[in-house]
Amino acid sequence: MRSTIPKEAHDRVLVLRQTLDEHRYKYHVLDAPTLSDAAYDSLMRELEDIEKQYPDMVTPDSPTQRVGATPLPYFEKVEHKVSQWSFDDAFTEGDIRDFDVRVRKMLQGALGCPVQPTYVCELKIDGLKMVLEYKKGMLVCAATRGDGVIGENVTQNARTISAVPLRLTRPIDCIVEGEVWMSKANLETINSERAKNNEEPFANPRNVAAGSMRQLDPKVTASRRLDNFVYDIARTSEALPKTQSEELEYLSRLGFKVNREHICFSDISGVISYWKEWTKKAPKEDYLIDGVVVKVDEREYQDLLGYTAKGPRFGIAFKFPAEQVATQVLDIIFQVGRTGVVTPVAVLKPVAVAGSIVSRATLHNEDEINRLDVRIGDTVLIQKAGDVIPDIVSVLVDMRTGKEKKFIFPKKVAGCGGDGSIERIPGQAAYRCIVLDSPELTLRKLSYFASKKCMNIDGLGPKLIAAFYEYGLVKTYADIFKLKEGDMSALPRFGEKSARNVIAAIDAVRTVPFDRFLAALSIPHVGEETARDVATSFKSIDALQKASVNDIQNVFGVGGVVAESIVAWFKDTQNKKELDDLLSYVTVVPPKTPSASSFFAGKTFVITGTLKTFSRDSISEYIRARGGKVSSSVSKETHCVIYGENAGSKLDVARTLGVRTITEEEFLTLEL
User: pLDDT per residue over 548-594, tens digit each?
Assistant: First the structure.
């Protein structure tokens, strides 16, 4: 009771709640925090302590009540007080222009004169729709969309989302609609933890968001750190704003988190340009976006246009090109990598995915083929993994006709050496060639050897390597260093000047750092970073050749598989013969030992985004030369993330983990 609570405690609770609410709004809605996490946590603990001492002071809108409800036995059904419509879809410029024609024609019919409405564009967030109801400014109900008429009561779970206000800035009655989502960076963090616990990773943020909102235990939902954008007010006790764009500002003033990416256009051409822009930009955002929602901005016109049985006539979802589509598997073939690893590839009936035509998709290995049960002739769903490599997501089993051919992994593959025989790598799902002397493998290894990442022989690219190989000039690494200007006279359209340039480029790398040399040898599992770690530890090729598996796996960051691969490579008779021949033409020097006092020594850096002044390779080399490491992923061990324009989820992960982030310009000011 109020009378038993000291006035000092009562007043302190009010101040704490107001401060914590203001910070929540600034941090989660405006993305402009004014308190450190430590300061916020200390204030929250103080509030919890006072409420624990005086339980009568606990109210539903207290910041302490975001997580604390007991698990539910089941979800209650909720009848929506406002029907939940869905938008029609547009997929092409023609579709959206047709929408514009329909809108203008209907408005002209209603008003008796031509009208050009304003269109407001908002990003279509790919998450889970949630309807929030407030009475006198207090959250009383949160429900899923369901079938548009009946949804599920997920109020306890909605309370765990910091972007959802428990109390509005004014004591009004309203119903609003929004989208619950999970960030890509958060999904990456969760999947890292699941991997440590030997749990299957979650597939995508949308599925996790939907699944998290349907957890009976709110503490599980809270642990997923979901977010929320509100985009529409379905009902309010106050006067509705006159336009959709004003409505978004109104929602923001009430305390809701509104996506800042919204803009108005006076004609449909602007809408199309905006859609094209975001088709390219969407993958770089930390939340999933699957299109642009286009609405007539003027509420007066919205009311005139009205609704169909399905949804509003004044709006449409302008979808991005499909990220996941169905097509047919025509065949399964194999690609052979330079180290002899064999990868099955599905040959597909060509189909457009994310704006490009796809005719092949990786199947990774035999285990993946068996897991999917993919057969030649199957209809499959494909998507682009990381917007680059198409993946088969699943087989549409119901579409099988009985003519599909079950795939049996072969014993021989074209592209391998000898008779093409392959074997499964012990302890792994991958297969490899037993003999590695085929022309295809030789060319790939020679090209990699000469590449910028390895020996860095300027101008000696894959096409020239192939020409040298075809004319019998180069078969081994050492053959490159045996070349003379006169040897190239037989090559068509290859003059004396070109020959001199090639020889000069080769002579320039006859002395090479051990780490680059080691990476150039195409030892299975030994990439650039591993080569640097090993070279730094062993200093010379002689020392490495004498090392045991145990010696090598004692190098930080090098595991048993890598160590065994290195030892096996140096024991191979043919490899030893070619290495000895190569070393008679090349001098391998120890990698540069950076100063222990260097700012970079012992620290790990990540580079992300588009850089203006530097290339990623040049910054990476600069850091490594001074004792630092460059990683492709962000973790708590990362010292610093260097970012340029259009930096993606790595930057968000860094900020989430509290890792230092600097711009390209700030990189120049570091203690060098």
Answer: 999 998 886 677 888 898 999 999 999 999 999 999 999 999 876 65
**CB of 562 closer than 8 Å to CB of 556:** no
Question: What's the CATH superfamily of 2-66?
Answer: Helix hairpin bin (1.10.287.610)
- Would you call 578 exposed, middle or buried from its count of C-beta atoms within 10 A (0-12, 13-18, 19+)? middle
Q: Which fold has domain 95-319?
A: D-amino Acid Aminotransferase; Chain A, domain 1 (3.30.470)
Tokens representing 476 are 């081994």
Beta-carbon contacts of 603 under 8 Å, excluding residues fewer than 6 positions away, are: 628, 629, 639, 640
Give residue-wise pLDDT tens across range 643-665: 887 676 678 778 878 888 888 77
Strand-strand pairing, 604-608 and 629-631: parallel
Query: Is the separation of the CB atoms in 362 and 391 below 8 Å?
Result: yes
Catalytic residue positions, numbered: 124
- Return the axis-axis angle of helices 184-196 and 649-657, rounded to nearest 10°: 70
Both tokens of 1, joined, read 């009771």
CA distance 517 to 558: 18
Q: In the predicted model, what is the mean pLDDT of the chain?
A: 86
Q: pLDDT tens digits, residue range 29-46?
A: 666 667 776 777 778 788
Mean pLDDT of 341-360: 83
- Residue 355's closest CA among 325, 380, 327? 325
